[in-house]
Design a protein that fits this description.
- The chain is an alpha+beta fold and 773 residues long.
- Helices cover 28% and strands 24% of the residues.
- It has 19 helices and 29 strands.
- The strands form 7 sheets. The protein has an 8-stranded mixed beta sheet. A 5-stranded mixed beta sheet has the order 7-15-14-13-8, sandwiched between helices. Strands 16-27-28-29 form a 4-stranded mixed beta sheet, sandwiched between helices.
- Strand 14, helix 9 and strand 15 form a beta-alpha-beta unit.
- Helix 6 packs across helix 7, helix 14 runs parallel beside helix 15 and helix 18 runs parallel beside helix 19.
- The model has no long low-confidence stretch (mean pLDDT 97).
Length: 773
C-alpha cells in the first residue's frame, strides 16, 4: 500500500453539511432529463385518452369507427383489449377498471385510448368518438353523499380512548360545530407521463413519472397478464409529485405498456393539463362535525367527531388517508376522553388520492378549529388554550394509544413566541384594530406534531444497492424516487460520510425495479429515513469487508483501521482512498452490497384502533400575521416566523427549502386553491387559468425560517435526523387563524368566525359582513 500524498481536513458534502441539490444547476438551466426528454426510438407511437363527458350513468354504446378511420391512427384500446386483469385498484380489488365496460362513475373518466403516429393525431381523433351514456344524477360532495346514504369506499376507522359520552355529559362547557375543508390539486410542474418500450418475449420497460415504481410494475404486470419479472419500471426524476404520482400514474403506465406490447413499438402517453387535472385524483375534501367539552380554563375534557371525506368513485388510497386524518386530529393536544370516526364516502367524482400530509392536514385543521372555538368562547388568546392542552407528563397518550415520548412542544412554541415577539405584536394589533378602519390585522401561533412512518406497517422497509468501482468511485441505487425534494442528495451524503469521500465520488442512479425490488412509495415523509438507512447498511457491509481485508493483510486489529477524509488509516500507515480500494479489488474483496432496512418498534392493529403506528414525531410552530381588507375580503400575509424540528439535519439548506415550500403550498391549499364542480359533476377549475396556486407575490412579505438546531432525534433514525417533507405544510394553519382573528375584530372578538377552507376573499368577506351585523 502506498502512503497518502495529500491529507484532506474533511470530505466535501458529507452528512449534516449544507449542500446544493445534486441537480439544482440542471434544473435551472433546463438540462435535467425528465421522462419526456428521453430520446424517442424510430417508430415511437403516441397515445391519448378518450374520456367521458358524463359524470354518472350506464354505457349504452361506444362507436369508435370515426376515431379509427383518422389517418395515422393505428387503433384504439378499450376494456376488451386488456389481456390480463382490467383492474388497476391498488388496495381494493375490483373497484377501479383500467377502462370501464358497463358504467361511468365520474366526469372525465378514461373510456379508451387512441394510439397514433403523433400525439396531435391521437388527441384530435379521441374527440371523434360517439359515446352514448344513459346519464344519472351524480352525487358530488361529501355532504350530499351522507344525505344520500352513499356507501363507504372502504372500511371506516374508529379511534377511541376513555369514555367520550360520559366525558361530554360531565363537561361544564360544550361546543358543537362543523368545518368544511377543501381539497387541492397537485399541479406538479411535470404532468403525468409514461413511455413504454417493448422487449423480447413478454418483457417491457416503462419509463414513468412515478413515486411508486414497484406499484407501477405490479399493475402493468396484472394488466398484461405476465409475471412481475417481465416488467421493468425506471424513474430518473420527477418534476414534482406531492402524492399525485403514488397511485394515479398507474393508468398512464398501463396504457403505454399495453399499447407497446400490442403494436410492438415504443409508446408514449402525455395528457394535456386539462385532462390531467380532470382525470386524476386530488387531496380529499372533508366535512367534519365535532363536539368538544371543556372546563372554564379551556382544558379539553372530551371530544367526539366524525370526519367524512369525498373519496370519489373507488377506494384508491382513501382508506389510509382518512385513517391518518384521525391520527392527527389531536395535533399537539391531549384528549382525555375521545371518539373519532372516519367516513370514507363514495361520490361521483374522480377518486381522490395521496397528497402531502396524506389526510393529516385535514384532521389537524379540525383539531385547531376546536381550540379556536374554545378560545373565542372564553375570550382568551388561542395560544393560552393551546398551551393548556399540550401533551405533557401524565397527559401523553394519543387517541390511538401511542405514548408521546419525544415531546418538545413547549420548547419549540416558547422559543418561537419569544423570537417572533408574539405577545407584543398581538397587543399592538388589538390596539390598532380597536381604532376601527378598513384594514384589520390578525396574528396566530400554531404548533404541529406529526407522526412519521407509514401506517401500513409493511411499507416501512427499503433496499439499496451499492457498488464501489476499483478507482474508488461509488454508484448507489435505492428504492426511493427523486421528485425535487433532495432525496438523492441526502442519500449520497450518507454514503460520502460513511466512507469519508467527497460527494463527487458518489453517484446515485435512476430508480429501477431491476436493481432494488419490492420498494415502497416515496411518501409519508419517509424517503430519507428508509432509503438513507438502507444505503448506510450497504455501506457498513462493505466497510466490514474492507476492515477485515486490512486486518488480514497488515496484521492489525479492527480498532486500528479508520476511515479518514480521503484516506484510510491502517495501523500507523495512511493510504489514499483510491489506492486502498484498488488493493482490495486486487485481493478479490467483494465491493458490492445490497442494503436493507425496516423501521423498528412500530406496530398497528386497525381492528382495535391501538398500537404504535409512528416511529417518532416531528414538531414545529409558525407565527403568522395578516392584513385583511374588510371591504373586499382580500388579504395579504405580512410576516411569518417558523421554528421547525428536523432533528440533526442531514442537509440544513435542503431542509429549510422544504419548510419554506411546504408552508407556501399549505398556505395555497388553505387560502386560494379552490376546487369546484358544477351540478353536472364537471370540474370547472381544470387548468391554471381557473385554479389559483400561490404566486411569488403571494408569499409572506417577511419570511423567517429557522431549524431547531438543538434538536436530535432520540430514536435511531438516519444520522438522528427527522423527516421534513410533510410536517411544514400544516404550519400554514396559522395563516387561516390569523385571518380569523382579523375578521373576529369586527365583533370585538366575541365570536369565532368559523371560516371554511379555502378561506378565499369571498368567504372572508361573507364572514366580515356576518359579524359586522
Amino acid at each position: 500500500m502506498n502512503k497518502v500524498s495529500e491529507i484532506k481536513a474533511e470530505p466535501r458534502g458529507a452528512a449534516h453539511q449544507e449542500l446544493a441539490h445534486e441537480s439544482a444547476v440542471k434544473h435551472v438551466s433546463g438540462r435535467a432529463d425528465y421522462c419526456d426528454d428521453i430520446l424517442e426510438p424510430a417508430g415511437t407511437l403516441h397515445a391519448y385518452l378518450g374520456v367521458s363527458d358524463v359524470a354518472c350513468g350506464r354505457i349504452v354504446s361506444m362507436d369508435l369507427s370515426a376515431v379509427e378511420a383518422v389517418p395515422g391512427v393505428l387503433g384504439v384500446l378499450t376494456a376488451d383489449d386488456v389481456p390480463g386483469e382490467n383492474q388497476v385498484s391498488t388496495v381494493a380489488a375490483g373497484d377501479e377498471p383500467l377502462f370501464p365496460s358497463e358504467r361511468v362513475e365520474f366526469h372525465a373518466q378514461p373510456l379508451f385510448a387512441v394510439v397514433a403516429e403523433s400525439r396531435d393525431i391521437a388527441r384530435r381523433a379521441a374527440a371523434l368518438a360517439k359515446v352514448e351514456i344513459e346519464a344519472e344524477t351524480p352525487v358530488i360532495t361529501a355532504r350530499e353523499a351522507l344525505a344520500a346514504k352513499n356507501p363507504d369506499v372502504t372500511v371506516p376507522l374508529t379511534l377511541q380512548r376513555g369514555d367520550a359520552d360520559a366525558g361530554m355529559a360531565a363537561a361544564k362547557n360544550v361546543i358543537r360545530g362543523s368545518v368544511e375543508i377543501g381539497g387541492q390539486e397537485h399541479l406538479y410542474l411535470e404532468g403525468q407521463i409514461a413511455f413504454a418500450i417493448p422487449g423480447e418475449d413478454e418483457d417491457v420497460i416503462v419509463h414513468s413519472s412515478s413515486q411508486h415504481p414497484t406499484e407501477a410494475q405490479h399493475m402493468v404486470a396484472h394488466v398484461l397478464g405476465v409475471p412481475a419479472h417481465c416488467v421493468v419500471v425506471n424513474v430518473r426524476r420527477m418534476g414534482g409529485g406531492f402524492g399525485g404520482k403514488e397511485s394515479q400514474m398507474i393508468l398512464f403506465a398501463c396504457v403505454a405498456a399495453l399499447a407497446a406490447k400490442r403494436w410492438n413499438r415504443p409508446v408514449k402517453i402525455r395528457p394535456d393539463r386539462d385532462q390531467d387535472m380532470g382525470s386524476t385524483g386530488k387531496r380529499h375534501d372533508f366535512a367534519c362535525d365535532y363536539e368538544v367539552g371543556y372546563d372554564d380554563d379551556g382544558r379539553i375534557e372530551a371530544v367526539r367527531a366524525q370526519l367524512a371525506s369525498r373519496c370519489g368513485f373507488s377506494a384508491d388510497l382513501s382508506g389510509p388517508v382518512t385513517d391518518r386524518a384521525l391520527f392527527h386530529a389531536d395535533n399537539a393536544y391531549y384528549f382525555p376522553n375521545v371518539r373519532l370516526q372516519s367516513r370514507p364516502i363514495k361520490t361521483n367524482t374522480v377518486s381522490n388520492t395521496a397528497f402531502r400530509g396524506f389526510g393529516g392536514p385535514q384532521g389537524l385543521l379540525m383539531g385547531e378549529r376546536m381550540i379556536e372555538e374554545i378560545a373565542y368562547a372564553l375570550g382568551r388568546d388561542p395560544l393560552e388554550i393551546r398551551k393548556a392542552n399540550f401533551y405533557g407528563e401524565g397527559r401523553d397518550v394519543t387517541p390511538y394509544h401511542q405514548k408521546v415520548e419525544d415531546n418538545i412542544l413547549d420548547r419549540i412554541v416558547t422559543e418561537l413566541e419569544d423570537s417572533a415577539e408574539y405577545q407584543a405584536r398581538r397587543k399592538a394589533i388589538i390596539a390598532e384594530n380597536a381604532k376601527g378602519g378598513i384594514i384589520r390585522k390578525g396574528i396566530a401561533l400554531t404548533p404541529v406534531k406529526f407522526g412519521i412512518s407509514f401506517t401500513a406497517t409493511w411499507y416501512n422497509q427499503a433496499g439499496a444497492l451499492l457498488h464501489i468501482y476499483n478507482d474508488g468511485s461509488l454508484m448507489l441505487n435505492h428504492g426511493g424516487t427523486e421528485m425535487g425534494q433532495g432525496l438523492n442528495t441526502k442519500v449520497a451524503q450518507v454514503a460520502a460520510e460513511a466512507f469519508q469521500v467527497d460527494i463527487d465520488m458518489v453517484k446515485v442512479t435512476k430508480t429501477t425495479t431491476e436493481k432494488v425490488p419490492n420498494t415502497s412509495a416515496t411518501a409519508a415523509s419517509s424517503g430519507s429515513d428508509l432509503n438513507g438507512m438502507a444505503a448506510l447498511d450497504a455501506c457498513e457491509q462493505i466497510k466490514a469487508r474492507l476492515v477485515a481485508f486490512a486486518c488480514e493483510t497488515k496484521g492489525v486489529s479492527a480498532g486500528e483501521v479508520e476511515f479518514l477524509p480521503g484516506r484510510v488509516r491502517v495501523g500507523a500507515e495512511e493510504v489514499a482512498w483510491a489506492d486502498f480500494i484498488m488493493e482490495a479489488y486486487m485481493a478479490r474483496v467483494q465491493l458490492s452490497s445490497a442494503g436493507f432496512y425496516k423501521t423498528p418498534k412500530i406496530h398497528w392493529n386497525r381492528d382495535t384502533g391501538q398500537g404504535r403506528p409512528f416511529f417518532y414525531f416531528a414538531y414545529g410552530a409558525a407565527c403568522s400575521e395578516v392584513s385583511v381588507d374588510t371591504l373586499t375580503g382580500e388579504y395579504q400575509v405580512d410576516r411569518v416566523d417558523i421554528l421547525h424540528d428536523v432533528g440533526h439535519s442531514l442537509n440544513p439548506a435542503i431542509d429549510r427549502g422544504q419548510v419554506e415550500g411546504g408552508f407556501v403550498q399549505g398556505m395555497g391549499w388553505l387560502t386560494t386553491e379552490e376546487l369546484w364542480w358544477d351540478d353536472a359533476g364537471r370540474l370547472r377549475t381544470h387548468a391554471p387559468s381557473t385554479y389559483k396556486i400561490p404566486l411569488a407575490s403571494d408569499k409572506p412579505r417577511e419570511f423567517n425560517v429557522k431549524l431547531a438546531e438543538w434538536s436530535v432525534n432520540p430514536e435511531r433514525s438516519i444520522k438522528r435526523s427527522k423527516a421534513v417533507g410533510e410536517p411544514p405544510l400544516m404550519l400554514a394553519v396559522s395563516v387561516v387563524e390569523a385571518i380569523s382573528m382579523a375578521v373576529a375584530s369586527m365583533a370585538n372578538y366575541r365570536e369565532c368566525p368559523r371560516l371554511d377552507t379555502p378561506a378565499t376573499p369571498e368567504r372572508v368577506l361573507k364572514a366580515v359582513d356576518r359579524l359586522r351585523g
